[in-house]
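Methods: example folding runs. The two proteins below were folded one after another, and each record is reproduced exactly as written to the output file, sequence line first and structure-token line second.
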Amino acid sequence: MPQPNIGFLFNKDYYADDYFTQENNKEQLAEELEEKNKAILDRKLSEYIGLKKSNPQTGVYKLYLKTTYPGLLIGGGYMHEVGQFTVQENKETKNNPENTILKLGFYFDYTSGLPVIPASSVKGVLRSAFENKEYINDLIKILKIKVNNFNIDDWEKEIFEGEVKGEKLSIYKRDVFFDAEIDFEAKSGDLDKNFLGDDYITPHPDLLKNPIPIKFLKVLPGVVWRFNFDLQDSALQEGGLKAQQKLRLFRQILCDLGVGARTNLGYGYFDATFGFKQLEEDIKKLEDEKEKEELAGKSELGKRLYFLSREQWSSELEKKLGELCEELTNMEIKDRKLTALFLKDIWIKNSKWQGKLSIKQSKKVQRVNQVLSELTDQFSVKDNLKKK
């Protein structure tokens, strides 16, 4: 049996009857609104599993986060009023429609009718964190993200604008943000539970009068959301983040800052302990798949260079690169050029190519420069002979 589109119930069906135009039918209107609210609130996750399975998931990288008390409100700035039907007397009675209607808006996916957190909201929250450089620096330390000579402004430009050193990246090399959706897989636990509820805010415009509660719709605590991203390794020559490092950073920001409306009242926050193990497992799986793809068809030297490129900078890596530099003389021309370019690239990224270098490192750089110069001269001679 097809399940109702909740977005339609909330934004269209809510206004379908003519009770709002009748001046003498307030109690009936209140009862009707209660029925409409019940049709929205009595929905269970299990009712929509088939719908979400037919809708392919987006994004390669995913985060799973669970809402905490009091829940999540998204789209509260949208209008959801029904006009002037307020009963002036007996405002606190149960049958007053003013106390029954869901007054704040809510954001639903148009097609599925299910709550979603728009990609623009996710991107906006994450970008706002980068305005506080001290906070990002603290996260780098807390999460033990190893990256050298980084610049947070460069990260912000690349991640959120697709720009590196003033040049726009190809769309295929940019980070992409997708809508966050409620997860309907095993990670959500009990699927036979409601995922929407109602709540109240009580503004006090007059200190001498009782406040009139405003009823609104929210996602309940304990609901798991899937945040979807298509992330790329940084194109920065130095101090860039890898895709999995961005994902770990994004997760912590979302847990710290929350998403949606009324975060100052506790709405929109997530359980910081939930989904961490799943994240590490997913990252490991993606890294294994990427490694398998990268190594396919590579020579033994190519595989060796690949594994060296994956290592974080350390004295051990520096030693391995020194040994590789010593082997340049005995390599074939093609392998010598590939290795020399690799050494130059990795030393540039780790500030070991120019500037204040040790005597030992300076000799290595001179050696690589010499090899590249010799190879350039050789190919130049061959080109001239071909022309003749």
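Second run, written to the same file directly after the first:
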Amino acid sequence: MARTVYNVTELNCKRRPGPQARVGCSRVLGAALCLWGVAAVCYGAPGQSALPQLTAWLRPLLVTAQTGAAVVEVATGRTLFSRNADTALAPASTAKLYVAAAALALLGGDFRYETPVVTDDAYLGDGVLNGDLCVSGRGDPSWTEATLGQVVQRLAQLGVKRLTGSVVCDDSLFGPARTGADWGPANLRWHYAMEASAVCLNGNAVEVTVAPGSSLGSPPRVTVAPASGVLAISNTAKTVSPAERSTLSLDRQQGSRTLLVSGSLPRNASPVVQGMSVPQPALQAAYCLTHQLRKAGIAVAGEPHLGHTPSQTTLVLLVRSAPLRELVTSMAKHSDNHLAEQLLRTLGYRCQTEGTAAAGIRAIERFLSDHGIDFAACRLVDGCGLSRRDQVTARALTALLAGVWKLPCGRAFWEALPVAGTDGTLRGRMKDSPAAGAIHAKTGTLRGVCGLAGYAFPNGDNPLAFAFLANGYPGGAGRIRALQDGFCASLVADSTDLSPPSP
């Protein structure tokens, strides 16, 4: 069936898309008006006189920003609205849609990471583990301190009182490039630009808290949770009079294992809490596991380090993650960069026998090709969308959404997305609009980049796939989000049943 494309310069509300379309032309024009900067949404049937006004409204936004948008009827693939839909733009975190779709389709929603914890000691019955305790990393992104506690508990159940060797973490499954090639030094210190690793802990980040010192001139108190054997702290900051303003700075240079705390913090200031990335997160996990073992009364003779899994081992514990569908849901609803990068490398390892971002992207591209999903003029270089070199078109995003809907993993995919006015990154948006509960979509934000792509459910009927990308706009993203929210409201306006149907 030929696509019917409505460009804003040729839209005529006396033409209708045809009997199979679920969105009237007046509503699509209402979407266009909201999309391109009109404060009020018109649901009536404007005449031809609206078109010159629309052209005039377009000019200011097109001068100050690059924009692209598309709306597609999922059931038929018919394009109902298109504006610069083939313009490649930075997607920010809407790029996570590709990781989510490929992971659910290729690995399956029931897939679980299985991480062996092993030893090279063949006999554990005498209370002594002769040799090392090795965590053989498989890329599970969900390990926390509670997971380490399970390992400690298992050793206690086995009656182990002493390790003659060390805790060793093997993170060799993933390739050497652990961050995006162009994420930039300014980002790499923060928790959202963490390193990927075959052995993870707490999202490969730590929480740094800086509180005023006990007296004027004294250094602020710095604590790191969990306590890190990887990060050293250089604290040159000073506690100053309450009348002075804070100049506190936290930094970690690229490749360095030293956390730099400098500047000043007023005596009456509240503690400053900041998430920061950890270099060599697998080594951090080894340190934390060693600490927990010793705290539980299990002596460990050696110091933690990285290494390789021995060829001959005894299984101590097999740690299984939650099902993949739950991990994908957490990634999508909370826009978790760590989960996205771990899943990307897992796709590489499981589908391309290579645990790298590049291999994961090849797996995604193969998935798209196999299912006939358009990816022309697009490029991914990471999984989370932090890179400015990621380039995606609105048409490609709607093709992905429409294509995945029809796959067996379709329900798990759209259920993973944030719901307008309800949860995730859309919890605070569209609460008092027709879109509340009727939009399932992934957000994406970087400086000067704002995206929204997902599904609209008008009248509980056939869903619409939509994408709205904006790059290079001046000021904050608030205005763009307001346009996106109005755009979504126009797609579902006049609905009486917002319950999404089954794929």
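Comment on the second run: The chain is about 30% helix and 20% strand.
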